[in-house]
Amino acid sequence: MKKIKYQLLGPIVLSMLLLFSCNKYLDIQPKGVQLLKTVKDYNDWLNNDAIETVPRNLNLLADNEDNIQVVTPPTSVDDRIYTWQEQFLVNPIGNPGFWSPFYQAIYYYNTVLKGINAATGGTVEQKKSLKAEALLGRAFNYLYLVNLYGKVYNSQTAGQDLAVPFVTSNDLSSPIPPRSTVQDIYDSIISDINAAIPNLPKNNSENRFRGSVAAGYSVLARTYLYMGEYTKAAQNAQLALDNGPDSVINYNSIPSGTSPDFKLITR
Questions:
Q1: Mapped to the 3 state alphabet, what secondary structure does the chain carry?
Q2: Over the stretch 131-183, which tens digit does the pLDDT of each residue have?
């Protein structure tokens, strides 16, 4: 009996020691890495440059963009975008021009949505505000994705037309969900924005790339415009004007880059 007990005790003790060692190792904070622990950490996370702008080369799809140096056949990603090629990459393993940056931004927003409730410091209102900004940011990026990779919204077919995967996890090891329909993506966009608006900040003057009430209504207005629901689009556009600065900027009065009064603002 004693021999059997010792034989069982050995693996148990070894397992406990390994578990303790693993936990102790996981408690070590990597050098040079700031882990997301506090509300301030998550607020700084939303100031990341990676989620502040849409891809620059989207402008190449516009009618007012001119590229007289494009080669035939097009070779670069920008040339292929400019000429509306079926595939923007010659090598399908490469970094997609639009897909990658939009999903990268969605990853940042999902990280806030998954972790903000457990963050230390700050107030409940601050947590709600950051969560609202993440919901709005995710919806904004999906509005681009669904229109880049899905069919134009058609109420008769949107429930069957496939668009893009609607990712809500920030776990890179999680399997990619199947493609959602155009209708599902639009429903999720509207749901996220409506959930965000009550807790969005009224003023985002410290960082114009961050969410606000006016931004929430403006993205919702654009969403309804794309859906052909013009009454709702007009209502939300007016709400955007009512909840933010509605003055028109006179660009003729802004100094040019060569003017002595021109000041380059960086941050």
A1: CHHHHHHHHHHHHHHHHHHHHHHHHHCCCCCCCCCCCEHHHHHHHCCCHHHCCCCHHHHHHCCCCCCCCCCCCCCCHHHHHHCCCCCCCCCCCCCCCCHHHHHHHHHHHHHHHHHHHHCECCCHHHHHHHHHHHHHHHHHHHHHHHHHHCCCCCCCCCCCCEEEECCCCCCCCCCCCCEEEHHHHHHHHHHHHHHHHHHCCCCCCCCCCCCCHHHHHHHHHHHHHHHCCHHHHHHHHHHHHHCCCCCCCCHHHCCCCCCCCCCCCCC
A2: 999 999 999 999 999 999 999 999 999 999 999 999 999 998 899 999 999 99
